[in-house]
Amino acid sequence: MKTMCSLVVFATVALAAREAVARLGETAEEIAKRYGEVDTVGEFQGKVRHTFKFKTYRVSVLYLDGKSAAEFIFPNGNEALTDMEVAALMEAIAGSSKWGKPDVLPLSKTWSGTETNRAFAHWNWKRVGGHCLSVSSANGRAFIEGTMKAKQRAKAEGF
Predict the structure, then answer these.
(1) How much is the pLDDT for 141?
(2) Which of 38, 52, 101, 113 is most exposed by smallest CB count within 10 Å?
(3) Strand 103-105 vs strand 108-112: parallel, antiparallel, or unpaired?
(4) Helix or strand run (H / E) with residue 34
(5) Whole-angstrom Cα distance, residue 86 to residue 73?
């Protein structure tokens, strides 16, 4: 009975997320149709970033070449996402439920997509300032990692 209840809850969460959550590769206009009005417009290393208030989340979307390349989901307040919510959001944003086994660290999990799902996801449940789920395309991940490495090099060189 407990398993059946869990499956029903997962299916409900997955269906709701799939219908409302934006997908990687969508334009700003397509994303706004799903999330509503842009709350803030900003940039990350010279690339456009829109932030939305959506349901019980704050969602930040990074665009590369006019298409969404990464989404960062922050639950409002100090609440954490459940494992079912994380799975449903990953599937909805990446457009696939095919994920490799996660790399589990003490405070986070990281997934890589399969051959048919080239996306990446990272769930950090003890991030300073709150919990965060990020889902990115291969080019989104490469951009973010390149930016982080450049910052680390600059810091190491004393800049």
Answers:
(1) 87
(2) 101
(3) antiparallel
(4) helix 28-35
(5) 10
